Amino acid sequence: MVNIASYQTKAGKRYRVRYRKPDGTQTDKRGFKRKLDAETWAAEHVTVAKARGEYIDPRDGTITVRPLYEAWMAKKRLSSKESYYHTLEGAWAANAAGMWDSRRVNTITREEVQRWAASISDGTGTRDGRPRSATVVIRIVDMLAGILDDAVADRRIPSNPARGIAKPRKRKRRHVYLTAAELYAVAEGAKWRRDIVLTLGLCGMRWGELAALRVRDVDLERHRLHIGASASTVAGRVVVSDTKTYESRSVMYPEMLDGMMRHRCEGRGDDDLLFDAPHRPGDYLSNADGPTSPDGWFAVALRRAGIDKGHMTVHDLRHTAASLMVSAGANVKAVQRQLGHRSAAMTLDTYADLFDDDLDDLSAAMSDMLAREHVGKTWAERDEVGE
User: Fold this and answer.
1) What are phi and psi of 28, to 5 degrees?
2) How far is it, in rounded angstroms, from Cα 158 to Cα 106?
């Protein structure tokens, strides 16, 4: 029930709306100069909203973002790999905490979320003045949106001001591929990492998947590697978790790697790592062993091999493997299984440029087939006479 009553203040007569919330507790809204204003507010915010089951107590929206962020991150810890959780934690601390942690959720507007996203993108809103990539901007905006989704679900705010705002588009980086000869040259230039470069460049697994391989994962008879885990460096320590897709798979390795695989397995126990650093025997390869900086070992190996194809990282060896497999005649499904993509459609989307030549090959193959059946000649003759 809603009750409207007047009361006296130093500024004169005012009206208040006293009502009960859906949970039965009593509260009021004060400060109306006219009784009509109080009645209008009560009708819009209490009576109708309660009837529709849409009523939201304004005081519930005074909670700040920080405790909601902590609750949201607790959910993410349950469902995410530790490396991804650490990425989210760092992204929020560096780019969003100062802006939103102490803000009451019912004071956040769509306009300021949009302006904030734009300022992070162009660098005017970052602590160091440097623009953030589209990936980072999308990540932190989606984090804020997820946190405020919970606020909506808990009936703290009526709608989410972070949903539906414009976000930067990710620019699709052009893939860089090495030829087989270039791959061998880079491998030689990588010194003790030669076997690592060849395995990545010919098999196409991710760096973390290679780092987690153990001797027991090698099938020397069938030339197979079992990919069932991934090792990544999180806050200075190596964390072993599931693969990116949370699925295990078997991948082939070419026979030319047979000698290397046998050598690495010889004299080792099943639980020993297949790849480790000479200066850290028995330890996982860390992310520091796969740097992307211009002075990193991979960049040095490229220079030693005399290869300059623009910016390349160790991850580009995965693209090289895809290119070599397609060149060898592998179909999309085989490439998908080898790379560990969730679907063949994802493989096609990622490497559409590698399959462009398939149309030329298909045209030539169909022409040969039609010629053998004498169909092509008949059609060609009909076209010449205009039939």
Assistant:
1) -150, 160
2) 9
Residue 345 has pLDDT above 60, yes or no: yes
Biggest CA pair distance of the chain: 103
pLDDT digits (tens, 9 = 90+) for 269-319: 999 999 998 888 888 887 655 555 667 889 899 999 999 988 888 999 999
Do residues 146 and 72 touch, judged by C-beta distance below 8 A? yes
Report whether 43 contacts 52 (CB < 8 A): no
**Percentages helix, strand, coil for the chain, rounded to the nearest 5?**
50, 15, 35
Phi, psi of 376 (to 5 degrees): -60, -40
pLDDT of residue 307: 92
Q: How far, in Å, are 23, 72, 185 from residue 68 at the CA level? A: 22, 6, 53
Q: What is the pLDDT of residues 374-385, one digit of tens each?
A: 654 554 555 555
Measured in degrees and rounded to the nearest 5, phi and psi for residue 246 equal 60, 25
Strand order across the beta sheet in which 224-227 lies: 218-219, 224-227, 249-252
How far apart CA 315 and CA 178 sit, in angstroms, is 12
Pairing of strands 224-227, 218-219: antiparallel
If one counts every other C-beta atom within 10 angstroms of the C-beta of residue 356, the result is 8
DSSP codes joined into one string, 313-373: -TTHHHHHHHHHHHHTT--HHHHHHHHT-S-HHHHHHHTGGGGHHHHHHHHHHHHHHHHHT
Distance CA 48, CA 42 (A): 9
Instruction: Report the chain's terminal Cα–Cα distance, integer Å.
Output: 85
**Amino acid, single-letter form, for residue 213:** L
